[in-house]
Amino acid sequence: MSEQTASEKINRPRGFAALTPEERRALGSKGGRTAHARGTANKFTSESASAAGRVPHERGTAFRWTSDQARDAARKGAARRSRNPEPTE
Predict the structure, then answer these.
(1) Is there a domain that residue 7 lies in?
(2) Which domain covers residue 33, as residue numbers?
Protein backbone atom coordinates (compact mmCIF):
# COMPACT_ATOMS: atom_id res chain seq x y z
CA MET A 1 0.00 0.00 0.00
CA SER A 2 1.41 3.39 -0.93
CA GLU A 3 1.73 6.25 1.51
CA GLN A 4 -0.64 9.15 0.80
CA THR A 5 -0.11 12.71 1.92
CA ALA A 6 -2.95 14.63 3.48
CA SER A 7 -3.56 16.57 0.26
CA GLU A 8 -3.79 13.34 -1.78
CA LYS A 9 -6.17 11.64 0.61
CA ILE A 10 -9.59 11.12 -0.93
CA ASN A 11 -12.55 11.89 1.32
CA ARG A 12 -14.88 8.92 1.05
CA PRO A 13 -18.04 8.39 3.08
CA ARG A 14 -17.61 6.04 6.01
CA GLY A 15 -20.00 4.00 8.09
CA PHE A 16 -23.68 4.51 7.37
CA ALA A 17 -22.90 7.32 4.92
CA ALA A 18 -21.19 4.78 2.64
CA LEU A 19 -24.33 2.61 2.47
CA THR A 20 -27.07 3.00 -0.10
CA PRO A 21 -30.51 3.96 1.22
CA GLU A 22 -31.68 0.38 0.63
CA GLU A 23 -28.75 -1.03 2.64
CA ARG A 24 -29.43 1.43 5.48
CA ARG A 25 -33.09 0.47 5.54
CA ALA A 26 -32.26 -3.26 5.57
CA LEU A 27 -29.74 -2.81 8.38
CA GLY A 28 -32.18 -0.74 10.46
CA SER A 29 -34.91 -3.29 9.90
CA LYS A 30 -32.60 -6.07 11.04
CA GLY A 31 -31.83 -4.14 14.23
CA GLY A 32 -35.52 -3.57 14.89
CA ARG A 33 -36.36 -7.24 14.47
CA THR A 34 -33.51 -8.20 16.80
CA ALA A 35 -34.62 -5.72 19.48
CA HIS A 36 -38.19 -7.02 19.37
CA ALA A 37 -36.95 -10.62 19.54
CA ARG A 38 -34.82 -9.78 22.60
CA GLY A 39 -37.68 -7.86 24.21
CA THR A 40 -35.67 -4.63 24.44
CA ALA A 41 -37.55 -2.66 21.78
CA ASN A 42 -39.62 0.36 22.77
CA LYS A 43 -43.28 -0.50 22.58
CA PHE A 44 -44.78 2.91 21.87
CA THR A 45 -48.32 3.61 23.03
CA SER A 46 -50.10 6.91 23.36
CA GLU A 47 -50.38 6.30 27.11
CA SER A 48 -46.62 5.84 27.56
CA ALA A 49 -45.92 8.93 25.46
CA SER A 50 -48.39 10.96 27.50
CA ALA A 51 -46.81 9.80 30.75
CA ALA A 52 -43.31 10.62 29.47
CA GLY A 53 -44.46 14.09 28.43
CA ARG A 54 -45.81 14.82 31.91
CA VAL A 55 -42.54 14.01 33.72
CA PRO A 56 -40.73 17.34 33.11
CA HIS A 57 -43.83 19.28 34.14
CA GLU A 58 -44.16 17.30 37.36
CA ARG A 59 -40.48 17.80 38.15
CA GLY A 60 -40.67 21.48 37.35
CA THR A 61 -37.93 21.19 34.72
CA ALA A 62 -40.12 21.81 31.67
CA PHE A 63 -39.05 24.77 29.55
CA ARG A 64 -41.26 27.80 30.06
CA TRP A 65 -41.56 29.85 26.89
CA THR A 66 -41.99 33.58 27.08
CA SER A 67 -44.37 35.07 24.55
CA ASP A 68 -41.41 36.62 22.69
CA GLN A 69 -39.60 33.27 22.49
CA ALA A 70 -42.72 31.51 21.24
CA ARG A 71 -43.31 34.20 18.63
CA ASP A 72 -39.68 33.98 17.40
CA ALA A 73 -39.83 30.17 17.22
CA ALA A 74 -43.06 30.27 15.21
CA ARG A 75 -41.58 32.85 12.85
CA LYS A 76 -38.48 30.69 12.27
CA GLY A 77 -40.58 27.59 11.66
CA ALA A 78 -42.81 29.37 9.16
CA ALA A 79 -39.78 30.76 7.31
CA ARG A 80 -38.20 27.32 7.10
CA ARG A 81 -41.43 25.77 5.81
CA SER A 82 -41.69 28.38 3.09
CA ARG A 83 -38.11 27.63 1.94
CA ASN A 84 -38.49 23.83 2.12
CA PRO A 85 -42.13 22.88 1.67
CA GLU A 86 -42.90 19.34 2.81
CA PRO A 87 -43.48 16.93 -0.08
CA THR A 88 -47.09 16.02 -0.65
CA GLU A 89 -48.01 12.42 -1.29
Answers:
(1) no
(2) 19-83
Burial class from Cβ neighbours inside 10 Å (0-12, 13-18, 19+) for residue 4 reads exposed
Q: How many helices (H) and strands (E) does the chain have?
A: 3, 0
Task: Give the burial string for 28-63 (b: 16+ CB within 10 Å, else e).
Answer: eeeeeeeeeeeeeeeeeeeeeeeeeeeeeeeeeeee
> What is the pLDDT tens value at each position of the chain, 89 positions in all?
556 566 567 888 999 899 999 999 999 999 989 999 999 888 889 999 999 999 999 999 999 999 999 999 999 988 888 877 666 65
